[in-house]
Design brief:
A hairpin with a 2-residue loop joins strand 1 and strand 2. The chain is 31% helix and 14% strand. The protein is flat, with a radius of gyration of 13 Å. The chain has one domain. It is an alpha+beta fold. It has helices at residues 4-10, 54-68, and strands at residues 19-20, 23-24, 42-44, 47-49.
């Protein structure tokens, strides 16, 4: 089981955390402001939800694709 110390060491943002090519869909390469072991909430157009908006995931995929192609 993940402890708060583990979360801090691994910069774990809570669950669910979604990454594309190792990059968090919300924070990108920026270091997280907070770490936690509990439920993660995302700010969506419909308010705070325990899952990200599909557009956030799609943008992360497009950014990863574009960076692989060099552009």
């Amino acid at each position: 089981m993940l402890s708060q110390e583990d979360a801090t060491a691994k910069k774990f943002l809570g669950t669910p955390s979604i990454r594309v090519e190792g990059i968090d869909v919300e924070y990108g390469n920026r270091p997280p402001e907070e770490v936690q072991i509990g439920t993660r909430y995302y700010n969506t157009p419909d308010g705070w939800k325990p899952f990200p908006h599909a557009r956030l995931i799609a943008n992360a995929i497009l950014e990863a694709h574009n960076s692989q192609e060099g552009g």
